[in-house]
Design a protein that fits this description.
The protein is 30% helix and 27% strand. The protein has helices spanning 20-33, 63-66, 72-83, and strands at residues 7-14, 38-46, 51-55, 58-62. Strand 3 and strand 4 form a beta hairpin. The termini are far apart.
C-alpha cells in the first residue's frame, strides 16, 4: 500500500479520568491489527471526559454520544470499515450463535 493511501488514527482521551492506559492499549491493538493500513496513530490528552477515536477526518467513536467505551472487537470493525472495508477480521467478524449459552 502506498504511503498516500495509509491512514491516520487519533485517540482523544481525558487525563483527569485516567484513561491513558485504556487509550494506549487500544492504540496497540489497532496498530497490531492494521499495521499495513495505519501510518500514524496519535494519542491526544484532553479533559472533560473526552474519549473519541478518529480515522483521518471521520469520528468513529464518541464516549459521550455512544454511551461508553467500545469493545475492542467493535472498535476494530469500525476502523476496518474506514481503512479496508473489504478486509475480514476473522473471528472478530463472527456473530455469536443463538445456541451458545
Amino acid at each position: 500500500m502506498s504511503e498516500e493511501a495509509r491512514h491516520h488514527v487519533h485517540i482523544h482521551y481525558c487525563t483527569g479520568c485516567r484513561w491513558l492506559l485504556r487509550s494506549a492499549w487500544m492504540a496497540q491493538e489497532l496498530l497490531t491489527t492494521f499495521e499495513d493500513e495505519i501510518s500514524e496513530l496519535t494519542l491526544h490528552p484532553g479533559s472533560g471526559g473526552i474519549f473519541e477515536v478518529w480515522v483521518d477526518d471521520t469520528r468513529i467513536w464518541s464516549r459521550k454520544e455512544m454511551g461508553g467505551f467500545p469493545e475492542i472487537t467493535r472498535l476494530k470493525q469500525l476502523v476496518r470499515d474506514q481503512v479496508s472495508p473489504e478486509r475480514s477480521l476473522g473471528h472478530s467478524d463472527r456473530k455469536p450463535s443463538g445456541n451458545v449459552p
